[in-house]
Amino acid sequence: MKYAFITFAIVMMAAALSSSSNSHVGALPRRLIKRAVTVAQCFTGLPTNLAFDDSCKDLFLPGKGFRAVTSITLAALDLDFSDPDPLKIILSSPDMKVGVISNLPIPITGTRQDVTLVDNGVNIATFSTPWVPGVMKGNLLETTVGSTTLNVNDTQRDQFSAFIASLTINTEHNFTLKGTVDVNFTLPTPFGTPVVTTITGIYFESIVTLKGFANFPDIQFVELIEKTENTDNSFTIKSKVNIKSASQLGVKMGDVQFHTFDAVSSEAIGVTVLEQLNLVPGDNFIIAVTTSTSATTKPQDIFKRVSENGEIFRLEGFSASSTTDPILSNGIAVVKTNVTIPALNTAAPAA
Ligand SMILES: *[C@@H]1O[C@H](CO)[C@@H](O)[C@H](O)[C@H]1NC(C)=O
Ligand SMILES: *[C@@H]1O[C@H](CO)[C@@H](O)[C@H](O)[C@H]1NC(C)=O
Ligand SMILES: *[C@@H]1O[C@H](CO)[C@@H](O)[C@H](O)[C@H]1NC(C)=O
Ligand SMILES: *[C@@H]1O[C@H](CO)[C@@H](O)[C@H](O)[C@H]1NC(C)=O
User: Fold this and answer.
1) Cα(280) to centroid(ligand 3), Å
2) Are residue 58 and residue 206 in the same domain, yes or no?
3) Would you say residue 49 lies in a domain?
4) Within this chain, do residues 203 and 262 fall inside the same structural domain, yes or no?
5) Which of 3, 88, 199, 225 is 20–30 Å from 273 (CA)?
6) Ranges of the chain with pLDDT below 70
7) Among 106, 182, 184, 195, residue to substitute to test ligand 1 (most atoms within 8 Å of Cβ)
8) 137 with 244, same domain?
9) Does the beta carbon of 218 sit less than 6 angstroms from any atom of ligand 4?
10) Domain span at residue 29?
11) Which of 112, 132, 198 for a ligand 1 pocket mutation test, highest count of atoms within 8 Å of Cβ?
12) Atom of ligand 1 nearest to the CA of 132
């Protein structure tokens, strides 16, 4: 048992030495060695304490040199805005990869985290994850984030909307996840069964890059479902569109409204509702309902034009786009995208 921990401590010491040996090479050896000895002491204290004490936890803080987590990659991230409380968003990630320091000799078996989401230097939201199993593959810890509530900081609503806006209009967005992670791992013993240990409160901080929606450059008209012209000349055009998403985000937004214009002349056409706008990576077949409004000056002309020749519609978000969630609405108000509508008289209605 003792032997295992000493071996372990030596490997940790090596890891600590190698983790920042690329910076300030000449000036550091003594400090590095001192720190490595401290790290080793922290780890040799584990079998009796089963937790790091505060001075050991400090080693993981930024600038203290022992960076246990080197990267976080979210291959998928799902956000559900359907809770009536706009400050509560349900977050989950079925595929999270945490890069850890090389040579970390601990076979991690499970993790949980307390996380703060930092965007442009501001703490905008927090979440805590329950214990989930994790599997170490080389330097990567493969794990998941089960359904958990992302709590938007009440004083940072606008910054959270700006975060959503950036993911909406850009091809990628960088932000920071920081916090503490608790890990379960099995320590090998030279004789007998491995010991399962939990270390709590290991500080981490990592930049995360997510692909954004890039202003939805690829909305394709799929088919006309129905078109109706009323006796007062108002009209409704209901169609199916495909929104292709290159983002790894899954976002549940509910019905979202967009002001709709002729893309060439900017003449007001009306409003388009994208019904149950729940986006996943890849194809998203969505029902789009465009109706004329009081802002539409000559609805009969537009209806005739779209029916006979087709038209490019420009959809624009506005801050009341989604009535259910003001934070989300402000985030997607920035959308400006074109949809090419073919001549509807020859676009076959859905069978
Ligand atoms: C991790 O260990 C804790 C006890 O410290 C236990 O409650 C939890 O279920 C374990 N979880 C996993 C996934 O290993
Ligand atoms: C919320 O934002 C305020 C103002 O920036 C900040 O002081 C506070 O720490 C944040 N809350 C959390 C939980 O991060
Ligand atoms: C995000 O970070 C990556 C890696 O650090 C960098 O290559 C990329 O340019 C950054 N993107 C933006 C939009 O800042
Ligand atoms: C939308 O279409 C108009 C008219 O063809 C064009 O000027 C504009 O650049 C297009 N916008 C986008 C984002 O493709």
Assistant:
1) 23
2) yes
3) no
4) no
5) 88
6) 1-53, 55, 57-67, 102-106, 187-192, 321-323, 348-351
7) 184
8) no
9) no
10) 1-44
11) 198
12) 13
- Of 46, 53, 57, the closest CA to residue 195 belongs to 46
Residue 135 Cβ inside 6 Å of ligand 4? The answer reads no
Residue 89: which residues within 8 A CB-CB, separation 6 or more? 79, 80, 81, 83, 125, 149, 150, 152
- The closest of 190, 195, 184 to 48, measured between CA atoms, is 195
Question: Is 266 a domain residue?
Answer: yes
Residue 37 lies in a domain: yes
Please identify, by atom number, the ligand 3 atom nearest to the C-alpha of residue 172: 13
- Give me the pLDDT at residue 231, please: 93
pLDDT at 24 (0 to 100)? 37
Tell whether 96 and 14 lie within a shared domain: no
312 Cβ below 6 A of ligand 4: yes
| Residue 101 CA to ligand 2 centre (angstroms) | 30
Nearest ligand to the CA atom of 200: 1
pLDDT of residue 321: 64
Tokens of 63: 């600038």
Same domain, 329 and 225: yes
pTM to 2 decimals? Answer: 0.82
In one letter, which amino acid is 193?
T
| pLDDT confidence of residue 148 | 93
